[in-house]
Amino acid sequence: MKTLKVAIAGLGTVGSGVVNLLQSQGDFLQTRTRTKFEIVAVSARDISKPRMFSLPNAVWCDDPLDLVETDADVIVELIGGAGGVAYDLMEKTLVHKKTLVTANKSMLAMHGGKISQLSVHHNTPVYCEASVAGGLPVIKLLREGLSANKIVSVRGILNGTCNYILTLMHQQKREFLDVLQEAQEKGFAEADPSLDVDGGDAGHKLAILSAFAFHTLPNFDEKNISGIRAITLKDIDQALQKNGSLKLIGHAFCDQDNNIQQSVRVEFIDRADPFYNVNDVFNAVEIHASHAGKIFLQGKGAGSEITASAVVADLIDIAMGRYFPLFGEV
Ligand code: HSE
Questions:
Q1: 205 counts as catalytic
Q2: How far is the CA of 281 from the centre of ligand 1 (A)?
Q3: pLDDT level of residue 330 (50, 70, 90 thresholds)
Q4: Which end of the chain has a smaller Cβ tally under 10 Å, C or N?
């Protein structure tokens, strides 16, 4: 029986979900992979915070960078943020030739080239299924299931907060600010919701998907990104009258000149379009592949168990020796 030693940086919603999944499904995972997943070290902002689990055998590191110095084989970065300590941890992990699992969409979107370069230079893999659309295994689909295809386009509802707000505006005839406030009260939207409602979060996810789809590096280009802040009830009503709805859609495709075009914007969605029925906090991705045709995935894009499912899928790939190069490589 092998052991995969795992260190986790960040014990928030996703980190706690990963610990819970590894602990509650330990036997099942062990049987399936012939590997024992052992959490050997953790780091979080507040050591004294009450938690639903205990990790008596894990080393506590006040500084996440110290996780790399432990005997962990894999560092799971769940801190978030494009720069700062998350970036430093990514860099130190790869320089020390430890495998990196990350859910950090903004860091991958903004620094994908550098991460890819470090991964190649230090011959150390990076796994990032949890960075896009939570429970939807869309990165796996692109780089494994559809690897024999040229990708024609990727479209997606990639931000659950925006989809929730637009759904309630549509169903309950309420204005944007009113619904946003409710979403914040319910904890769906961040206290500062700008990254969600202005399209940046969907833009980060699209840049990552686009890189996997078209074998390039992520190119997060703000100029083709807009959000839902300006959408009024009048716009929603007009869409309804035309037998459709409005959705924030990320769209990437390769044009005739071989340039990759990316946009995030509110689009009119006809009733016949599969995106029409994707409501509330749900995400969806449609991939148009040269040979497999159109594939549509729908599911939850955020949440503790949901995102943990993607992180642990990466850990299973590592345990099984399944290596997939990061962006831009074949
Ligand atoms: N704020 C994000 C969303 C969380 O609403 O989709 C998941 O990435």
A1: yes
A2: 9
A3: very low
A4: C
Ligand 1 atom nearest to 205, measured from its CA: 8
Residue range 159-175: mean pLDDT, rounded? 97
**Can you tell me the mean pLDDT for 194-221?**
96
Q: Which two tokens stand for residue 157?
A: 């509802």
From 159, 162, 278, 283, mutation site for ligand 1 pocket: most ligand atoms within 8 A of C-beta: 159
Of 205, 234, 247, 300, catalytic? 205
Q: What is the mean pLDDT of residues 199-208?
A: 97
Residue 70 in this model has a pLDDT that exceeds 60: yes
From the CB of 73, is ligand 1 less than 6 Å away? Answer: no
- The CA 163 to ligand 1 mean position distance, Å, reads 10
* CA distance linking residue 45 with residue 307, whole number of Å: 20
